[in-house]
Amino acid sequence: MNIKQRAESFLSVLRHCQVLGMTVEQADENGLIIKLPYSEYIVGNPVSGVVHGGAITTLMDTCCGISTVCYLDEFEICPTLDLRIDYMHPAEPGKPIYGFAECYRVTPTIIFTRGVAYQERREDPLAHVVGVFMRMGPAPDGQQLFQLGGRV
């Protein structure tokens, strides 16, 4: 299974990501890009159509967490220890949001990630994020998660 397939399999078991329509756009040794399409589910202000900040937080926590599959040899459950998001400006209504994340340091117990949420250009971020994830080691049946086809 290549890196993109591993990332897609991981995303497929997260029910809230399925409901929001998230998809893996790119996953390789340079990081991960996940797309969050614009929909009524992510609108925070129904008058203006502006996306709720919680939707961007969900996108970026998911993106940083799944980016670990781009850097680890085996699948590991890596729960979020800390996530910091600095919002730069609101998302433009009607357009999808992309999350990019990369791991910049991997230790035996902790993985450090960073990334951005953006719409058209990564150089014009909606938000910057840094996340810290705990390594719990390979699951005894870690690959089984991917073999279930999105059902846990």
Portion of residues within helices: 10-25%
Q: Judging from the principal axes of the Cα atoms, what is the shape?
A: globular
- Distance between termini? 19 Å
Radius of gyration, whole Å: 15 Å
Brief summary:
This protein is an alpha+beta fold and 152 residues long. The chain is built from 4 helices and 8 strands.
Structural features, described:
This protein has helices at residues 3-12, 15-20, 53-66, 142-147; strands at residues 23-28, 31-36, 43-45, 50-51, 80-87, 97-106, 110-118, 127-134. With 152 residues, the chain is α+β, with helices and mostly antiparallel strands. The protein has a single domain, classed as Hotdog Thioesterase (Thiol Ester Dehydrase, Chain A). The strands form 2 sheets. It has a 6-stranded antiparallel beta sheet. A two-stranded antiparallel sheet has the order 3-4. The two termini are 19 Å apart.
Note the topology.
Blueprint: H1 3-12, H2 15-20, E1 23-28, E2 31-36, E3 43-45, E4 50-51, H3 53-66, E5 80-87, E6 97-106, E7 110-118, E8 127-134, H4 142-147
